[in-house]
UniProtKB/TrEMBL annotation:
Residues 1-22 are annotated as: Disordered. GO terms for molecular function: ATP binding; hydrolase activity; nucleic acid binding; RNA helicase activity. Residues 8-22 have a biased composition (Basic and acidic residues). Residues 89-257 form the Helicase ATP-binding domain. A motif (Q motif) lies at residues 51-80. The gene is Contig18870.g20019. CDD domains: SF2_C_DEAD. InterPro entries: DEAD/DEAH_box_helicase_dom, Helicase_ATP-bd, Helicase_C-like, P-loop_NTPase, RNA_helicase_DEAD_Q_motif. It comes from Stylonychia lemnae. PROSITE patterns: HELICASE_ATP_BIND_1, HELICASE_CTER, Q_MOTIF. Keywords: ATP-binding, Coiled coil, Helicase, Hydrolase, Nucleotide-binding. Residues 284-442 form the Helicase C-terminal domain. Residues 51-80 form the DEAD-box RNA helicase Q domain. This is RNA helicase.
Amino acid sequence: MESSKQAIEAKPKKRMNPEMKEANEIVRKQLVQKVKNRDESAFINQQKDWTSKEHFSIPEDILKGINDELGFKRPSNIQAAAIPLILKKDEKGNYEHLIIQSNFGSGKTGAYTIGSLLRIDSSIKKIQVIVLGYQREIINQISEMFINATLFSEITVKNCVDDVFRKPSEHILITTLGKLNSYVTGRNKVDLSALKIVVIDFARLFFDQIKSEAELNGILDAIKKLGHQVQFIVLSDTYNEQVQYKLANLIEEANQISQENSQLQLTNIINYEYKCEPRGKIDFIKQVFDTISMTQTIIFINTLDFAETVFNILKHDGYKVAILFSKMSKEERDEIMIKFRERRVNVLITTNIQVEGIYIPNIGMVINFDVPKLRVQGKFKPDYENFLQRIVHAGRFGKTGIALTLYDNENDELIFQKIITHYEMDKMVQKLDSPRKLKDLLEELIIA
């Protein structure tokens, strides 16, 4: 991984009209030109620890939270690169914006958590950092990290995912766009006079799910009226053209940490592919679970209807499975996640977005029941982004895991090969002989 000031290259998920495409290209070139004017920022030697004054100056109370509660003994590569950039000022004394592209599980959340904490003045009892997430599970995770990091300090944290009634005044506010909009534009407005940082995490999903541009514009207008500079930190695994366009209108110039496609490879995940008999995927899945019954597994299926079909069949046949989908109540979702984390169920069936970005420990295997694909103008094309977002759950923080992709026809096989070629993983994906191979490999990983 390395720092780069060049454009993030990503193909759009959605087709843009010609006017937007032209505007996007103009604004993107402006952003890239400004970004190129910034100094290069190479990754810091990962052997440096948190107490190295050369790169980090962390108060003892925050350092204790990092070491004892978060368990971060040394900064990850992304943390080592990002934290100094979060603290970097331009020639006018303003803190520079930062755009980060890095894989899920690389330590991005820890990077902006620690970096933003170093900018907070705990003696000022006002909101100084706002973190925006795209769904409640993500916000809960982010809140937990901030709370743990600040456990021994006087810095306060507010998780607003379920609470819009009390006006918050904590130093750090973690919320969704809609709830923040109610705080900013509603009757009971919050005091943003001390605001220093706005973090947008999982930017690709955040911008995809914005229901009202007016909500975002209302918040941006409120920030502009503050009369002082507010630093934006934006993070995502990939940035398609839609997101680039929105960012270029949000941030005029920024430092950027990005990756090439080949750098997005998850080398700690052992990838397999298996060609099933036509309509034979469910029977094959049963063979797998009969062989490795206790392995925590996530199964990704492209459509909710078929996800429910697979869930009902496996449940009827006695397998310990659960299903997660967007229309569930928050109580139902929480209950399912608790059961899976506590191993009361071994298999979680879901669609693409439902567990994206959510940290679930002890996952041994991810199964792509369907090859990730998109329908574009009536034809199916590879869904490159979701392939990474699926398999990454098997390899959080460098842990070794298994990803298995199934297909039962030539079209899906071709789409899968395009995905592998896109990420230059042709030599990293093996053809699976039988479920027994998975059992032997998982046993080796457990022993290791």
